[in-house]
Amino acid sequence: MSGALTRLYPMVQFKKDTWEIDEFDCASMFLLIGSERALLIDCGMGIGDLRGAVEMLTDKPVTVVLSHGHVDHTGNARQFPEVWLHPADQGCHIPEALSWRKGDVEHIARRQKDCIGSPYTMFHLYPYDIEVDLREPTEPMPIVRDLTHGMEFDLGGGRIVTAYHCPGHTAGEMVFLDRAARTLIAGDALNYNLGVGAAPLQTTLKALRRIRDMAGEYDGIYNGHHDFRALGAPLDDDCLPTVIDMCERVVRTGEYIPCQVPSFWGQHVPLTRACAGESGDIFAKFGKRVLLHQGRNFLSIDPDNIRE
Q1: Domain residue spans in the chain?
Q2: Distance in angstroms (rounded) separating the CA atoms of residues 220 and 215
Q3: C-alpha distances in angstroms, 144 versus 63, 72, 188, 209?
């Protein structure tokens, strides 16, 4: 790994041996450290030396799991020899094309700070160079292992993290329950601007209810982006019940009222894209997209994919 790549990710230890690593507003990665090994959840868009940053926090062997196969969660996966990913989300290049990732990074930087690629200054710019720190990987593809529902990762010292399937945002979306730290890491399965449709909405609803029913085992839910919360802080308690309520209403009645107010990303921005070339298409193609709004939540659904 090149020493020239930045390791200056904002990091917060929000519980003992539990870190949120911010990839410069693009995505959040989570490092859970046990007595014998560590678990890294997600690999961001691919800016900088993520592995080097992780090694600054722990010298224990690291297992890498990916919450799902989207470009902003697999970008630096090649910095590790092995990753775990649900079979339904396997098939795309890791990482996706540099031009694609660069476009997304620039969009996020403009949205957040109206600038890209500069060191920290009095204007609080990002500590990376987009022409250096976002790159085509030189490392080989990692071995990709099958991540499945109910799989447990024993980190030692009684810290066992369990993976649960939560299809909707992608067909292979996973969430991770760390009972020892009473923390649920949700990837993109839950947030205030949620796009679903890679599974029937009824299936997604069942998975979200399972998360709700496990509430006695965690104190907070942390999603894969901190656009909707402070770094190191959980989503507010209204997020999950509101999403469930929105899904229940559509599944029960088949009726919905499209939102007339653009969401955080804008009403017409696609939430998934097909993989190009020989990489296959792991993400469900939406039919009609309808944006719903309730409270602080925006929910994008496919009205042609409601019931199982």
Answers
A1: 11-301
A2: 8
A3: 12, 17, 20, 29
Compute the half-sphere exposure of residue 224: CA atoms within 13 Å on the CB side of its CA. Answer: 29
Burial label for 228, CB within 10 Å (0-12, 13-18, 19+), is middle
CA distances for 198 relative to 97, 166, 202, 232, 284, angstroms = 22, 11, 11, 29, 5
Per-residue pLDDT reduced to its tens digit, 147-156? 999 999 999 9
Report d(CA 249, CA 237) in Å as an integer.
Answer: 20
pLDDT given for residue 269 in this prediction: 39
Please say whether the dihedral angle defined by the alpha carbons of residues 186, 192, 196 and 201, taken in this order, is positive or negative.
positive
Q: What is the CATH number of domain 11-301?
A: 3.60.15.10
pTM as predicted: 0.91
Contact 45, 54 (CB under 8 A): no
Q: Which residues lie closer than 8 Å to 277 by C-beta, 6 or more apart? A: none
Distance CA 55, CA 60 (A): 8
Tokens 């509101």, residue? 242
Contact by Cβ (8 Å): 77, 64: yes
pLDDT in tens, 44-54: 999 999 999 99
Q: What is the DSSP string of 70-132?
A: -HHHHTTGGGSSEEEE-GGG--S-SS--HHHHHHHHHHHHHHHHS--S----TT---SS-HHH
Beta-sheet strand order (sheet of 82-85) = 11-15, 18-22, 28-33, 38-41, 62-65, 82-85, 143-146
Reference 148, options 109, 176, 186; nearest CA is: 176
Q: Which residues contact 114 (CB under 8 A, 6 or more apart)?
A: none
Helix (H, G, I), strand (E, B) or coil at 186: strand
> What six digits make up the tokens of 11?
């990091």
| Token output for 71 | 């470009």
The arithmetic mean of pLDDT across residues 200-218, rounded, is: 98
Main-chain dihedrals φ then ψ at residue 31, nearest 5 degrees: -115, 120
